[in-house]
Structure formats: C-alpha cells, structure tokens
Design goal:
The protein is of the alpha/beta class. The protein has nine helices and 13 strands. Strands 5-4-3-2-1-13 form a six-stranded parallel sheet, covered by helices on one side. Strands 6-9-12 form a three-stranded parallel sheet. It has a two-stranded antiparallel sheet with strand order 7-8. Helix 5 links the parallel strand 4 and strand 5. It comes from Camellia lanceoleosa.
Amino acid sequence: MARAKVLLWACCMLFLATANADSSNFAKGIGVNWGSQVSQNLLPSVVVQLLKDNGIGKVKLFDSDDWTVKAFAGSGIEVMLGIPNNELKRLSDSYDDAQDWVKENVTAHTRDGGVDIKYVAVGNEPFLTSYNGTNTHTLLPAMKNIQKALDEAGHGDKIKVTTPQNADVYDSGTGGPSQGNFRKDIRNIMIDMVRWLDSINSAFLVNIYPFLSLYQNSGFPVDFAFFDGGAKPVKDKDHSYDNMFDANLDTLVWSLKKAGVPDLKIIVGEAGWPTDGNINANNKLARRFYNGFLKKLATDKGTPLRPGHMEVYLFSLLDENMKSIAPGAFERHWGIFRYDGKPKFPVDFSGKG
C-alpha cells in the first residue's frame, strides 16, 4: 500500500468480531487485504481458517504467490490476485508474457473448481503523484493484455481485470463532491481506463483512508472521519455529508459521471485505521471507526449518490512489521489482527451492536 497526499474529502473501513462467531450475522460484502511484509508469515492454511472463522468471504492479495493462492482451493473464499507495479511494463510490452501469467497464476488454480478467483488487480496505486508518471503509459496496455489472455483462456466471463487506485486520482479542489473530477495530469488516461472497465463489465477499485487525511491535515475536523453523527454536516447541492467516506466516494461518483460512465461499479479496495505509530493511531479511535462503519454497512444505506450495498476490502488482516515506515511509523500497524493472528480488540462485526 503506497501513500500519497489524500483529499480533504476522503475515508473508510471495518473490523472483525471474535473468532468462531456465527458468520450469518456478519455484514455483507466484506473482504480483507492480506499483505506479506512480515518477518514471519502465518501459514496460508492458518490464514484461510482465520478468515473462515470470522466470516470473511473475500481476500485481496498483492501478488499471486503459488503457495498462498493454492491454499484457498475449495475454501469458498473469493480471491483477488495482484500484479505488482514492477510487472506493468513487461506485461504491457508482451502479450505472450500476459498469456503465460494467466496460465501460471489463474488457469493452474481454477481447474476442477479450485480457487474462486474473481478479479485480477493489475498494479497497485500506479498513478500516485510520487511515481512521477512512471506507470502512465504501461498500466492500461497491461490491463488489456491480461484481460485478453483471460478471455482467450476461457476465464473472461467470470474473472475481470481492475486496478487499485489511490483517492488522489480525483479531486474536488475546495468544493464539495459535485466539483470532483479526475486529476488533470492523468484525466485523459483515466477516462480511457474507466470507459474500458465499463465496457468489460468490471469495477473501479479505490483506496480511501480517513486516517491519512487527519494525519496530513492538522485542521481536519476529527469527527468527520467517523460515522457516529458527531461531525457538522456539509451541504453540496441537494445532499448533506456528515462523514468523510460518503463525501469522498461521491467525489469519485461525480468524476465517473463526468468521464461518461455514471454507473460503473465501485469497490473500496482498501480501508482501515492503524492502532499505533501516531497520536491518532490507537485502539480507541480505531474501535470508534470500525464500529461506526460496520453499523453503516449493515444498513446497506450506501452514500447519497450510490445508495445500497457496498463491497469493501479491509486494510489489513495482519500487522506487517517489515513495511517501510518512511510515510510514518503507523504503516506497520494497520492490521485487524497482530502479526501472530491474535485480535487486537473485539468489535461487533454484525454492525448491530
């Protein structure tokens, strides 16, 4: 998970209850990110059981490691594979390489009803301003090559390509969500990409973090990062916003509308709150955030412009003690669970408490 400047209008996440709870009571549409930048990885079989015990039906990976992926065979857990940014140029230049990637990382795992792969996430926040345009011309060709290879291998109806984007790819300036549009330096590329995603019936994957807006903006209204009604509502046209998540996601909705794809599906690819490494990264605020968001998800209320059910991947399943702390010490403490799989604190995952 890379870091960059985050909009003043931004947010999102949730949290698990205790293990072995009744999964029928859990909020719908919840997945989790599982990163591997740790000194001692839990066995994939242990992680699969951890997810099943906690009613998590979806997992998003940052690569396609064979040992990890094959552990999900027959688990009933839906998998999103990842392709790192350093693979984009190779896969954009060579369709043969894209075919080989699909054969080795998709076909090999889906035979005989094996792993339930739903998406392939090509790149990870490839258009961050800090990358200085490195991936500007390779992302979409790589996405198209992988999707073409999926189609030709007979997977295309079920498995779609997408790409996780940081919320900095769109902006609303000093206005509200209705002023939202894709960043000027990548606007034409983003328009081409979202129109193509719409044409293949895929989804826009966005990472939204209220904690980072609070971390980067000393004047950010703290209550606006949460969902318990403590924030002063902000009016935008005919809608009112009392939390950052709704405002940020609707900024994206407006951006998609202006790009000509108002109905493109949106998935929140990462959302979370760290528990250490900063004055605002603590269990008290994390619990406040998770509890409020879970209640929101359980209602299927959605946002003013996108009412209804939302699909969200939590960031992250486990703390990662080998991550770079250049963005901040909190980078190693995004986990719902500690490094060893122990929960940090209980939260009512059903959203009913």
